[in-house]
Amino acid sequence: MKVSLFQFSFKSRKQAKKLIFKKARSLEVDLLVLPELTLLPYFCRKENMKNFKYSKYYDKDIKFFSKLSKKFNLVIVASLFEKQNEGIYYNTSIVFDKDGSIAGKYRKSHIPHDDNFYEKYYFTPSNDKIKPIKTSIGNLGVLICWDQWFPEMARIMALKGADILIYPTAIGSMKNDNKKETKSYIKAWKNIQKSHSIANQIPLISVNKVGIEGKKNKINFWGNSFVCNALGEITKIAKNKEEAISDVIDLSYSSKLKQIWPFFRDRRIDIYGDLLKRDI
Amino acid sequence: MKVSLFQFSFKSRKQAKKLIFKKARSLEVDLLVLPELTLLPYFCRKENMKNFKYSKYYDKDIKFFSKLSKKFNLVIVASLFEKQNEGIYYNTSIVFDKDGSIAGKYRKSHIPHDDNFYEKYYFTPSNDKIKPIKTSIGNLGVLICWDQWFPEMARIMALKGADILIYPTAIGSMKNDNKKETKSYIKAWKNIQKSHSIANQIPLISVNKVGIEGKKNKINFWGNSFVCNALGEITKIAKNKEEAISDVIDLSYSSKLKQIWPFFRDRRIDIYGDLLKRDI
Hints:
Two copies of one chain form a homodimer. Chain A has helices at 13-26, 58-72, 151-159, 179-200, 252-260; strands spanning 2-7, 31-33, 75-85, 88-96, 102-107, 133-135, 138-142, 164-168, 172-174, 204-207, 210-213, 219-222, 226-228, 234-237, 243-248.
């Protein structure tokens, strides 16, 4: 499976669409993965009622990506702000198949809320059944950003037959954050995702935003989008700048690893009950 | 919390006891962690009925470690082969408190069984409730070797208040294994454990055997015992040789991280039900 991830610095919807179109045209791959809230600024830096307006682009953006998929014969994973009903808004990733059809969507299940990332104000947590999205190139285990810190989600996707995990993401640090600490957080962010590949023996793609957004309380999205194999080894990684990276993923490596170390054979579902409790 | 891990090359029970005694005497720490099947050869390299005899040392070895703990005012984590009843044998870690009393024990829950590691032949999987062991120095989340590949176990220990995760281990490669592959496996073995610290925001100690055992089908236990902090950063690591390493663990770092990134607040216990299924 030939894949590309494209991390870019968001300036405006127009600029973003132009960049993505240009990039999609230049690629000869099966799958293009784009960052969280693909065609929007990261509006969750503030709690502001006016920002719900950004959901109005949902239908328009679906048309844009659908056309793009069909035109360039690409599976595309893009992320949108979805108004499902009055008062119910989701952070949603949509998978477009090569013919431009919607293969499926995934709504973010774990919603963060900490300084400068006020997402609980905007996003309703998904209650959809967790499952991979079937496409012409395989079963895509799409999850979103904060979900990546929860091994539970990767595990369920894998149990349900995901061939690969995919995390559109928007993570960064504040301009004044301690540089050493930020370095440690980036490392932890990579490690936790690599571990989902190791535990579930499937490859993974993580695509982050990059660049600075905001005038006050600037967020520096740290890029570092990467691909890792089914043993959690990073095979391609982007720097902290606008960049597309491409890679070829060997899906058969998963089968080999699952025979060497058959973790799934040995899961102790009879003693995992406490996983469904909040605290014990 | 001052901790030491001691990885040594097993020659005989007598030699092992002597080494451990000498080491315990020289340490000024709160906690000493020893490898899996501490005072035994790794007898699971073969399926041989005669090897059940190794369980006969259980009571004797408990006395040995109990005396050692008391003498040197140390919490000790040691691993034994326990015959619980006819036909029921466990791979068991025992925690001795500083006064020589048994603080608790943990029986291995996930039992591996692949070429040269024929553990299902010997060990009954534990059905005990998973919980950390209370000691005078904190709640120790003791798990054993193969358990380390299952994020479920670390999560339950953390939910139940473990201050630290501890993995006595016996993992290695065969003499003729591909060197590059072995290197990748060692890296994956470190990564999966670091991820348990990251996901659960508690530090971790992993203590492996080291050295070669066996005449035919030699296993090369790869050492690399390590300590990592609550963000999964390795703070001390041993090489592939007989070695004790010591470290000071700052338990307050866990509280800090849990306020910065409050993962436990956001667990979606309402959608994790599929974790209790084998396949879906």
